[in-house]
């Protein structure tokens, strides 16, 4: 895979929205403490221990939205560190506010392209888990190439997982869910932990995007697999 060429096909909409006074203050105060700017063309590895101030298993969340799942899972799992990557600045500010309010020390937030981060800033076998909850479904056929869960990206994510590390995806878009399932099951280095889709785990927090899908009458699909 030509990694630089692959990175040119964005898997997200740039969404640096207006913060407003309250979130603007949160972002200004807390970004220097908890934030990680992901360069467009990274040229050095991320020092994860320096970023978190300790060495611990690391979970990567790609597309953390407003941060509801991130802070809740990090609060319930203090022995692991959580790196959330998002491009929507109001969502980042919301998560930063929760991190401060709840006194969480095991959360950091990246702004930028998660594919660039994984490809160029993380070494192989450096992640204990990857969460991809309700990614952009890119529903139009001509945009399917922009979907995050596709063979090249799954192989990349799998290479960064430790043996036994888990890739957990969730979506409310049925056609994308079927593509996710076929993609991960075709990867020789991953094992689906269920016969098809997983039952919704009680420990996965409800997010705004999941509620929106349920309110629209769409089914929710979870997919959990582990690296061999």
UniProtKB/TrEMBL annotation:
Reaction(s) the record says it catalyses: guanosine(46) in tRNA + S-adenosyl-L-methionine = N(7)-methylguanosine(46) in tRNA + S-adenosyl-L-homocysteine
Keyword Cell membrane: no
Entry keyword set: Methyltransferase, S-adenosyl-L-methionine, Transferase, tRNA processing
InterPro entries hit by this protein: SAM-dependent_MTases_sf, tRNA_(Gua-N-7)_MeTrfase_Trmb, tRNA_methyltr_TrmB_bact
Residue positions binding substrate: 140, 172, 207-210
Record Pfam families: Methyltransf_4
An MF annotation (GO) of this entry: tRNA (guanine(46)-N7)-methyltransferase activity
Signal peptide: none
Listed SUPFAM superfamilies: S-adenosyl-L-methionine-dependent methyltransferases
Pathway(s) per entry: tRNA modification; N(7)-methylguanine-tRNA biosynthesis
EC assignment: 2.1.1.33
Gene Ontology CC terms, in alphabetical order: tRNA methyltransferase complex
Binding site for S-adenosyl-L-methionine: 61, 86, 113, 136
Family: Belongs to the class I-like SAM-binding methyltransferase superfamily. TrmB family.
Task performed by this protein: Catalyzes the formation of N(7)-methylguanine at position 46 (m7G46) in tRNA.
HAMAP family: tRNA_methyltr_TrmB (MF_01057)
Protein name: tRNA (guanine-N(7)-)-methyltransferase
Species assigned in the record: Allocatelliglobosispora scoriae
Gene: trmB
